[in-house]
Amino acid sequence: MDGKNKFVSPFYRPWMTTYGAAAPAGGSNKGLKGIVAGGITGGIEICITYPTEYVKTQIQLDEKAGARKYNGILDCVKKTVKSHGIFGLYRGLSVLLYGSIPKSAVRFGAFEALSTQISGGSGELTATQRVLCGLGAGVSEAILAVTPMETVKVKFINDQRLEKPRFKGFFHGTSIIIKEQGISGVYQGLMPTILKQGTNQAIRFYVMGALKNLYKGDDPNKPVPKLLVGVFGMAAGAASVYGNTPLDVVKTRMQGLEAHKYKSTVDCMVQIWKKEGPTAFYKGTVPRLSRVCLDVGITFMIYDSFMDLFKKVWP
What we know:
The protein has helices at residues 30-61, 73-84, 93-119, 127-160, 170-181, 190-216, 226-255, 265-276, 285-313.
């Protein structure tokens, strides 16, 4: 038919040309590749970095208002190893391991899907677009994976601080929480988590993209060495730590066993400010900085490696 009366199949669906079987080869499955590569990356990364996450959470929960158990990072490590052995630093790992894989999968899958849609399939993003895609990725992971995972993790670690811990493992602890508090018991602190993860990923993807573009200069196809990707990732992680540690502290308090003390996210912030002062919002910054820099550097380095591999073996 002519251009004015072009035949359109009744089976045609516009979204299929972007995401479905009718999409161009290579571009349609970038989101799926991001999910797979992200999931693998998340599992590897958490096994490497968990001890620093454990120490960070212990320090943040060691409130000034209560009886303090630790006099710093090294004291926390020393007492934990003395009481539970070196593997004591890995208590609660199963919780994060079960959650880290879907969290990373959702984050990178969402980012790849959003960037593909916003860029029209070219993958080239402006600074503003990269921030928005990172924000969307962070919000997605907060709702679908991070909030329940982090809530159970904080409750699990908090439980281990008791003289007689109740939780025997991930599934046992989760079942007790749901039995006593309902499904909302594993979904506490949603809003601060959304704020934290959204700003986290917005900052990280922006910094990573900016540093990569700076290195590539006028050649957008110039490959970035994986070790340099790791360094860029560490810089992105450091930027995110200083940007949202206060939100991380509030999120941790809202998801702890004593979350009932706070009426809302704002009430939690007000109580921390009144009882502990403004410096309390940066508790755990040093252990978090070391963990996040290592975490983000490793994550981007592994993720980029898998995506490069997928370009060769997964058309």
